[in-house]
Amino acid sequence: MMIDTNTIVSMTEANQNFSLVTRIVDQYGTAVIFKNNKPRYRVVEIMDTEDSENASDEDVIAVSKKLLKRNSAVYEELAK
Asked: Where residue 53 sits, what CATH number does that domain have?
């Protein structure tokens, strides 16, 4: 994940000044909150997340097939 250094905020700073986080999101589209010097949270506008929350039918079918294959023994046991 590429992180723009302008969007980085420490956890302490986010706790003390959340309006700074919202201004960063307004300007850059995202803010990344670091905890213990590691990226921990990403803040985005709600409008940006609506499209990414929906999986395509093909993706859902592919994941379902993987789960069925991986857990076939369990499903067979449950079917008894």
From this structure: 3.40.1620.10
pLDDT score, position 47? 78
Q: How confident is the model at residue 73 (pLDDT cuts 50, 70, 90)?
A: confident
pTM value is 0.58
In terms of residue numbers, what domain contains 61?
5-79
CB distance 31 to 21 below 8 Å: yes
Q: Alpha-carbon distance 63 to 80, whole Å?
A: 24
DSSP 36-47: TTEEEEEEE-HH
Give CB contacts under 8 A, 24+ apart, made by 39-44. Answer: 39/1, 39/3, 39/8, 40/11
Which amino acid belongs to residue 55? A
Residues 13, 16: Cα–Cα separation, whole Å: 5
Domain total of the chain: 1
